[in-house]
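Task 17 of the worksheet. Students: predict the tertiary structure of the chain below and write it out as structure tokens. Keep your answer in the requested format; marks are given for formatting as well as content.
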Amino acid sequence: MIVVKTIAVTIGILTTLGVFKWYTGRRVEAIRWFERSAYVLVALTVLYVIFGIALFFINPFYAVSYLAGEEGLWVNPLSVDFWASFPSYANILWKVHELSREWITFAAKLFVLWSNIPRVSSIGYGLRDVTGWSRGQLGVITSLFLNLYAFISEVYVFRESILVFGVILFVADRLRGMGAVLIAFYIFLALVVPLITAYAEAMYAKSPKIVWSGWSPEQWVRISDKLADTAYVFTRALMRTVILLGLGSALCAAFARALGGVGVYVRL
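Model answer:
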């Protein structure tokens, strides 16, 4: 369990330093390290309790499934891993990226096909002109959600290290600013990522999927309309993502400054 490993590693390092100083005769410094060890224990426990409770509001589906699995109405917040849903968050962003990319590729294939057929090449050029703006918009969306997918996937790997080193550095007098930045970044991820992916998933469900239904003239109208509809719904997800990243980054910077660190903004 992440919380147990996090607390054990952190407390172990600080306590070891305290014991070392105690047996080398520097007992005043040792007491300070023991105090920091206790502070880290309390700080990590409070963070996990807060996020364990917040999980039931941010990700109710995971919370309900967890309750059903426990077969009870009470769940210890320390036993809830709110990072457990992050792989599914990354998968949602990947699906948005893939659907946008597939629409762009599909339109490009049709353009190449029709533009190389004599006497009807104007159909291909017409399709290219009509879908130009939607393909351009989907290109931006494809890049952004690919970056978000990679970002969340990589951060998930270092999730424990971010919190452990953040709290350890925070209790060190000269490194307090660095620890404050890591803690603020940790909180930023836990709060913003679920909100971004929840809305992206809702927009993905509304977006048209690629279904080829023949070579009739109406099909070309449907293709341009479906491309436009996909661009519409994913643009809403794009704007929601930009807004949440902006607000979350501002709060992250403000919280880091409040803890004694420097303002760090998260940008993709």
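Marker's comment: The two ends are 31 Å apart (CA to CA). The chain has two domains: 1-82, 85-268.
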